[in-house]
Each structure stands twice: as C-alpha cells, then as structure tokens.
C-alpha cells in the first residue's frame, strides 16, 4: 500500500490549514513515512478471535442459544478447563487477561476527565467526532452496507451514547462488569457485521481494506481520545498532562478489549496524530453517502421525542448546527451539506466556551471542587442517556 490522497486538495486543506494543522501544531511533530509502512498492514487485519466466535455461535446455533452462551461467559469468568468450544474459550480468555501495562489508576484519571466534561463532552462526541468522521468516505462504508440510513439515527445515537458513557465511568472495566459485557456485545456485533458484509455484498477490499479493519478501528477510537480532547479545547476545557495521559490509557485498554492489537494503540498525542495523519492518506473525502449520514444525524434532532414541542426540537437542531460550524472546517461542513446557522445561533459556542472558562476557575482550584465537577458532569451525562433510553422507540429493527 501507498498513500493515495496525500496530494488531494481536501487532505492538504485539512492538514495545512484546518483542524489537522491544529493537531500537528499541538503534537509538534513531522509525520514519518516509515510509520505508514508499519501501520498499513492493519488495513487488512481483523479481529480473528471475534470472527471465529461468531462463526461458532451466532452463525451456527439458534439465536437464543448463542446469546445465552455469550451472556453466560460475559457475566461469569471462563476457566482454562471449561468444557466449551475452543473458539469460545480463546475469545473470553483473551478478554479476561488483564495486560501487564494496564494501570487502573491512570485509566480512572481518564474516566474522571470524561465525566467532568459533562454536556460539553456529549456535544463534542456528536458534533465534532461523529459528524466529522462522516467526512471519511471509506470509513463509513460498513454503516452504509449494513443499512444504517434505513434504520435511522435515533437508535444508533443512543447505542453510541450508551457505550461511551458506560465505559468511561471510574472502575467500570472490571471483568464481567456491565461495561465489560457491553464491550463483548459491541465486539461481536462488529464481527457479525463484518462476516455478513463479506458474505452478502460486493466489498471493495483494495480501497476499503477489510470491513471494520484494525486501522479503521484505531482511527475510530482515536476519535474518542485525541479528537475528543481537541474538540473540548475548542470549547475552553482545560486538560492537564495527567488527564491527557489518562484518556489515552483508558481508550488503549478499551481498544484492547475490543480486539485491536494493543501495540498499535496510541498512548500520547504525538503517536495518535501521526497515526491519524497516515490513516487519512488512504481515506477518500466525504461523498454522497457521507452527506446522507450527516443529514440523518441532523434529522435525529427532529425525530427524537425527548422534547415535546416542535419548536424545541428545531432550536436544538440549530444549536447543533452552530456547533458543527464552530468545530469543523468550513470545507467539511459544506461537503456534508450542513446548513450554516443563523447569526442568532452562531453565538452559542462562544457562550458555552465563556461559561466553561468561568466555571473552571471555580471548580479546578482544589481536589474537592474537582470531584464536585466530576460528579455534576457525570450526572448530566447519565441524565441525557436516561432520556435517550426512554425515548428511543422499542420497535427499531437494528
């Protein structure tokens, strides 16, 4: 493989003028071409353990029987001597093995940071990380091939929100915990989708790599660490060096649990930016599918029933659009066909930033105040998740 789009105008604009330049300046690095050669095999690498387990269970057994088996070993640890299919045993033994490099205290530092961001964190995840990710055309092909557009954005957003909140609480990732079980289900969902895509579609392996491949997965979870923190900085959120290390460490462990080779998962902004840079050299700019996904995410504001009145939903839509235009490069907003907000709404991100700068002067003075900010932020996030759980239609075919 060789970089394909390094000379394209959209690549150059992003890395020489836009958010990519901001990342390079923050990391203070010059990407090394040798890194591309080291990482490019990941584009055709997949989670073999997950795929073998799905083939052994969901593709062979009745659904209820397969689900019961997965539930059993998600809730209770498996042993080396267990009398069960080898692929089942290998999968869960890998997940149960805590790597020597994992530092639970450092991961909790990252979790507390995620919690203290409160609603700011959820805004960044939606309006910067998720929406910005739609501009990478090849990354989104699995969503298109699994019918995400037909199923709507409400359920998909609720699932993403639930995953992020559950795995970013303190001490959430202990073996057999609720978050651990959710990671098991997510990992197997990826494998099931990959196997079905390869079985039922004409997949462009040369351009798109394997469906849901390891390099795409690393880029996705870099969105939850590197890009997440970049977006928060745009909203005035201060990040200590220890918090930054904690966020990367937390997502390295989550990535490991999801079957990503841990030696490639970044632990600092320098390696994360370099990885992201080279990954974007093989990603085509946003296409028609990207614009449809962006439209569906915006439409979710109007489809969701958390707010009772249409005018409230329309106002929420305008506020999210104002965040899109504040956070994303203008060229990306235009490519994704996100309407430019009215001037009355464009001031919203500035108000949020100002509020964050003021509140941090109060709550970042000492540990007690910091803990209070963590508790308040976590409650905000859990309240939003509770609203989504209550208002996501139960009859979604997903």
From TrEMBL:
Cleavable signal peptide: none
Pfam families listed in its UniProt record: MPAB_Lcp_cat
Native organism taxonomy: Bacteria, Pseudomonadati, Bacteroidota, Flavobacteriia, Flavobacteriales
Protein name: ER-bound oxygenase mpaB/mpaB'/Rubber oxygenase catalytic domain-containing protein
Domain ER-bound oxygenase mpaB/mpaB'/Rubber oxygenase catalytic: 139-341
InterPro entries in alphabetical order: Lcp-like, MPAB/Lcp_cat_dom
Molecular function GO terms recorded: oxidoreductase activity
PANTHER family named among the record's database cross-references: ER-BOUND OXYGENASE MPAB_MPAB'_RUBBER OXYGENASE CATALYTIC DOMAIN-CONTAINING PROTEIN, SECRETED PROTEIN-RELATED
Protein species of origin: Kaistella chaponensis
